[in-house]
Design goal:
Chain A: It is a multi-pass membrane protein. Chain A: Its main location: membrane. Chain A: Forms an energy-coupling factor (ECF) transporter complex composed of an ATP-binding protein (A component, CbiO), a transmembrane protein (T component, CbiQ) and 2 possible substrate-capture proteins (S components, CbiM and CbiN) of unknown stoichimetry. Chain A: One of its GO terms (cellular component) is ATP-binding cassette (ABC) transporter complex. Chain A: It holds the Pfam family CbiM. The structure holds 2 protein chains of 2 kinds. Chain A has one domain: Arp2/3 complex 21 kDa subunit ARPC3, CATH 1.10.1760.20. In chain A, about 70% of the residues lie in helices and about 0% in strands. Chain A contains 8 helices and 2 strands; from the N terminus they run ααββαααααα. Chain A has a two-stranded antiparallel ribbon with strand order 1-2. Chain A starts with 9 loop residues before the first helix and ends in a 17-residue tail after the last helix. Chain B folds into 2 domains: about 150 residues, no CATH class; about 80 residues, no CATH class. In chain B, about 70% of the residues lie in helices and about 0% in strands. A two-stranded antiparallel sheet of chain B has the order 1-2. In chain B, helix 4 runs antiparallel to helix 5. The radius of gyration of chain B is 23 Å and the shape is flat. The chains are: A mainly alpha, B mainly alpha. The interface between A and B is large, with 71 and 87 residues.
């Protein structure tokens, strides 16, 4: 769920922009280092970003009979690592605002924080935890995508609750209100995105094993790797 | 190509410098967000619509098709403000000032969306990205964004073709088939994106690629009269809003 243009009060919009800036700057530095060391990775990173954009354009069947789209942050973080996803996610959100009128420019900071920072980090953390505890790859992939999706919506709920506290019960009541509304649709969607990500990863393991090995998803990652270098 | 970007490429203001259009479109958006929603947002929306349909000559039908998407989000986003949770009215009740707050939010988001659409409908993304280097964005990030922009349209085309092929092979008849098709579509997009990047890399290597993507930009000087008119419009809107706020209920 992208927060629409103009939805947040100016102070909140600016504050979320400030909150997401360090993560994006960290990602920009990682990406710049990588591109300067390996100029040819510009094209692979561009392809990765385009893949993220296209992934978010897939229509998922929803339990209510309607459709929604995956955030794509879980799969992106597992494949390309969270710092790179912060940059690619920011560019993707910018493109979505300008090309699809989806999201917004004043709410870009808030959307980046939920979709390009918290979602990827939470999803990647869960994936790593599963892998290090010896869980099978696909279990880690499912839980990573599930948590990335769900954490994105939880953060969005918090952002909306802080911006529009309930007149009677304050921020807590508002959080229950927005969280309750999202829970109806987003928990099934998070499960759906987890399942779809597992199916995509299974197909990739068959058809693009070389790419997954290079990205460090299959097998052991290379010992000397900068953050996001695999992308 | 996506409809908004296609319209931007054939816009009457296509040759204007992006800074001029950013000052106007994003200035109107900021006015919509920062000014009091009543009467600021309707004034900003009216001014933006007048510019969009008048001097910028954006076709009304295309504008409506693009605007109804954020408008739908604005409406659904305003609905929760009508209700209060907990408190003396019970677990869920009508919020006392709910309709007023929802109406103000609707006005603000709708007029702010129009401001961004004014920029998007007149400025192709390909005109903006290369200029971001001068604004301080590191060149590698801009290069990655440029590659993304080029590949996105190819991937969306490929995705539409794959989807049609899957439907023709009865890939959308049952729920299980839909999931299989979706997974195939996601994996195919990944494979095609990397294949396209590999081929681009080979092509660029043959042309002596040194890590910098050089792009020719049409020379468009920044028009001072345009910027002055933009400033006058924005100042006029701010002044009119603050004056009317005192007299209107």
């Amino acid at each position: 769920m992208h927060i629409a243009e103009g939805y947040l009060p100016p102070v909140h919009a600016a504050a979320w922009g400030v909150a997401s800036a360090p993560f994006v700057v960290h990602g920009v530095r990682a990406l710049t280092r990588e591109v300067r060391a390996n100029p040819e990775s510009t094209l692979l990173l561009g392809a990765s970003g385009a893949f993220t954009f296209v992934l978010s354009a897939l229509k998922l069947p929803s339990v209510t009979g309607s459709c929604s789209h995956p955030t794509g942050t879980g799969l992106g973080a597992i494949l390309f690592r969270p710092p790179i996803m912060a940059v690619l996610g920011t560019i993707t959100l910018l493109f979505q605002a300008l090309l699809l009128a989806h999201g917004g420019l004043t709410t870009l900071g808030a959307n980046v924080f939920s979709m390009a920072v918290v979602g990827p980090w939470a999803g990647y953390g869960t994936y790593l935890l599963c892998r290090r505890s010896g869980a099978p790859l696909m279990v880690g992939v499912f839980l990573g995508a599930f948590v990335a999706d769900l954490s994105t919506y939880c953060v969005t709920s918090v952002q909306l609750a802080l911006a529009f506290p309930d007149p009677g019960s304050g921020v807590a009541g508002s959080l229950a209100k927005f969280g309750g509304i999202f829970a109806l649709t987003q928990i099934p969607l998070a499960v759906s995105e987890g399942l779809l990500t597992v199916l995509v990863m299974r197909l990739l393991a068959q058809s693009s094993k070389g790419d997954l090995l290079r990205l460090g998803v299959l097998g052991r990652p290379e010992p000397k790797r900068h953050e996001g270098a695999a992308a | 190509m996506l409809p908004i970007d296609a319209a931007a490429h054939s816009s009457r203001w296509r040759r204007r410098h992006p800074v001029e259009k950013a000052a106007l479109g994003l200035g109107l958006t900021l006015c919509a967000v920062c000014l009091p929603p009543w009467p600021g947002a309707p004034l900003v929306a009216a001014a933006t619509l007048a510019v969009l349909l008048g001097p910028a000559a954006v076709p009304g039908r295309q504008l409506w098709r693009a605007f109804r998407i954020p408008l739908g989000f604005c409406v659904t986003g305003a609905v929760p403000l009508l209700f209060a949770v907990g408190g003396p009215g019970g677990p869920v009740s009508w919020a006392p000032d709910g309709p007023v707050h929802a109406g103000e939010l609707l006005l603000r988001t709708a007029s702010a969306s129009l401001g961004v659409l004014l920029f998007a409908f007149t400025t192709p993304v390909s005109d903006v990205l290369p200029r971001l280097v001068r604004a301080g964005v590191p060149a590698p990030v801009v290069d990655v964004a440029l590659v993304m922009y080029r590949i996105v349209f190819l991937l969306l085309d490929a995705q539409a073709k794959v989807r049609r092929a899957q439907a023709a092979r009865l890939g959308a008849t049952t729920r299980a088939a839909v999931w299989r098709s979706l997974a195939g579509l996601g994996a195919t997009s990944f494979v095609r994106a990397f294949d396209r990047a590999q081929r681009l890399q080979n092509g660029l290597a043959g042309r002596g690629y040194d890590g910098t993507l050089r792009v020719l930009l049409p020379g468009a000087p920044v028009s001072r009269p345009f910027l002055a008119a933009t400033g006058a419009l924005l100042c006029g809107l701010v002044a009119l809003t603050l004056v009317l706020e005192r007299f209107l209920p």
